[in-house]
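Project standup — Tuesday

K.O.: blocked on the structure for the chain from last sprint. Re-posting the sequence here as requested.
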Amino acid sequence: MNRESAMHPLRASIASILVLSAASAGAQSFHASTFATGTAVQATNPDSVALTKNSVWVSYTNNTTGRGQGGSSTVVRYRLNGSVQKTYSIAGSVDGLKVDPSSGLVWALQNQDANSTLTLINTEENTVSQPIPYASFKRGVDDVAFKAGQAYVSTTSPKSPGDATIELVQEDSNPVVLTPILLAGATGTNLATGAPNQPTPQSDPDSLKTTPEGDLMLSSANDGSLVFVERPGTPKQSVSFLKLLDHSNNPLTSVDDAIFATAHKGTFFIADSGNNRVLKIDADDLRVGSLYVSADALNVFAAVNLKTGVVTPVPGVTGLNGPAGIEFMARADGDGECSNNNSSSSAL
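H.V.: unblocked you, prediction finished:
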């Protein structure tokens, strides 16, 4: 599936981002505050965050296991001011949470390690579906991303190079039918070195995002790496990856989630799982196209150097304990209101 060229498309995209960033760089500022706590909704362990135009969605896993062995998660829909709009109790561990921009349905993915199912929340009709199983699937499903009206999921615990790590969801299938898009044995371009046809680090597929350019970005947690898939599922599909490093150039042992900043001003929302809270980080003078990660190995929210993979903790965001899901909501210049131009947004 992997086709390499002299200049990998994502490397060219990153090069243009770096030029734009250098031209627009200013005195960046970050202000962190508590947006919500699990205590207020009798829940623990916030994990995933999803955004719509007028809401922030958070899944609290409540110490449930990822294998569907009992217990339930609490999914909360917050207004942008942090007040609770609605809560939902969903059986199992909801590790993946996204909003389908085409339908407005909220996808809650349960039990990422085994016995995985999908629950759909219809906010217009105020209904919650029964758990929908996956067809002929014996591993786990972790997260979902939406691109051009299609849904892609990350599948966990690959045992061999032929195991899928990203799969395309067949629309309206029940049980859910999946088509492999990326395999654990795929090779790709190392974005830090430029070397093509290198083994991709995919031992622990986790969070899945759509980049501003419409590519897929997979966090491989225990590899401390990000894997990018451009033009997924097409004959021109290409793969690249970036290994994350600390300032001593030591490889990160874990990364949970990642997000690109799509505006100079905006707000990051990050699940601070061990502290049972969701942080709201207002940011100004961001570099458009800059990349941020929740580096749970270091307990930091950090900016990523796209040339080297080195992560730098964001100043003023301290005391994190198990940072997990992150999202970014853009804010127009001179506008006090946030507007979500993330690829998973909807009009809710």
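K.O.: great, moving the ticket to review. The longest strand covers residues 29-37. Residues 1-7, 15-25, 334-339, 341-347 have pLDDT under 50 and may be disordered.
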